[in-house]
Every structure is written in structure tokens, then in C-alpha cells.
Amino acid sequence: MERKWFAIYTRPRWEKKVAERLEEKCIEYYLPLVKTLKRWSDRKKWVQEPLFKSYLFVHINDAEYLRAIQTPGAVKYITFERKAVAIPPVQIQAIRTFIESGEEPVTDLPEMKIGDRVRVTRGSLAGLEGTLVEFHNKHRVRIMIEGIRQSLHIKVPPSFLTPLSR
Predict the structure, then answer these.
(1) Are the CB atoms for 73 and 18 separated by under 8 Å?
(2) Do 99 and 35 contact (CB within 8 A), yes or no?
(3) Residue 108 confidence (pLDDT)
(4) Dmax of the chain from CA atoms?
(5) Are the beta carbons of 131 and 118 closer than 8 angstroms?
(6) 3-state secondary structure of 80
């Protein structure tokens, strides 16, 4: 039987518990975890947290479909038009590659909008200033360099940018 990847939505903060229960059922799963520094008033500690809150992935065949979702803490499959959506293996591999790279996920982006003056603060183009013209996707922005009136595609995360005062 062919196996496919599906995303399961879990109860809040139950991702690891659901993963343990899937392990007990011998159901293949993938729970991407990232190392995060947690701060309390009296201490700091590195903890492993899910990359996607309340989600994990299962690699199942038709026979395991019902057993996986009946796991305590599992709420539902992610669906489109009432049908569970299979996730292409290439997307799961991309997540694995990202996790293995050790890059930190970008969660707190500076608030920026088209037309804002920005400066690149990290990477090989650090110090470059211009006007934000376009968010092409999560990893690419277009900045207009005023001096030459040319736009330049820069393949950097928006987190590498800092808005300049107006």
C-alpha cells in the first residue's frame, strides 16, 4: 500500500504527546522541532519546541488513516473541501533540510510595508539602503536603489532588513 504524508492538527501543546502515542502505535510521524531560548523572570533555558504549533505530520497508508487520527490529542487532518490533503514528500524534505541547517525560524519580523525606506543589516549586502518595492515571497524582497533608479532583487529574509525612520 502506498504511503502518503498528511498533517494532523493537535490539541494545543500536545504535539510531543501525540508523537509519543503514534510511536507506540508504530505509525511513522515527523514532528519538526527547533531549539528556542525561553526566558523566565529568574532564568533562561534552551528548549525544543515544535516548528509548527499544534501540527505534526504522519506518513501513512489507507489502513493506518483512522488509527492515526484516533490517537489521543489528535484533533483532525488538515483538509481541503472535506478531504485530507496529502503533502508532497518534497515539502517534508524541505522542512527536514531547514531543521538540519540549524537556521532559526523568523517569527518576529520588523513591521514593514511597500514604500518604506530600509537598510540591509545582515549578509553580504549589509549597509545597502533603498525603498522596499515588493515582497516577492518569504525569502525575497525587491529594493529600489535611489542613486541609480534601478530595482535589485535581493534573496534575503525580510528579517535581514531594518526599516529606516521616515
Answers:
(1) yes
(2) no
(3) 52
(4) 63
(5) yes
(6) strand
Average pLDDT over residues 138-164: 67
Place of cell 509548527: 52
* Domains identified in the chain and CATH numbers: 4-101 (3.30.70.940), 117-163 (2.30.30)
Rounded (10°) CA dihedral 149, 150, 154, 157: 40
Count of H-run helices and E-run strands, the chain? 3, 14
Tell me what percent of the residues of the chain surpass a pLDDT of 90: 38
| Measured distance CA(21)–CA(100) in Å, rounded | 24
3 state SS of 92: helix
| pLDDT of res. 67 | 97
Per the listing, cell 519580523 goes with 109
Cell for 55?
501540527
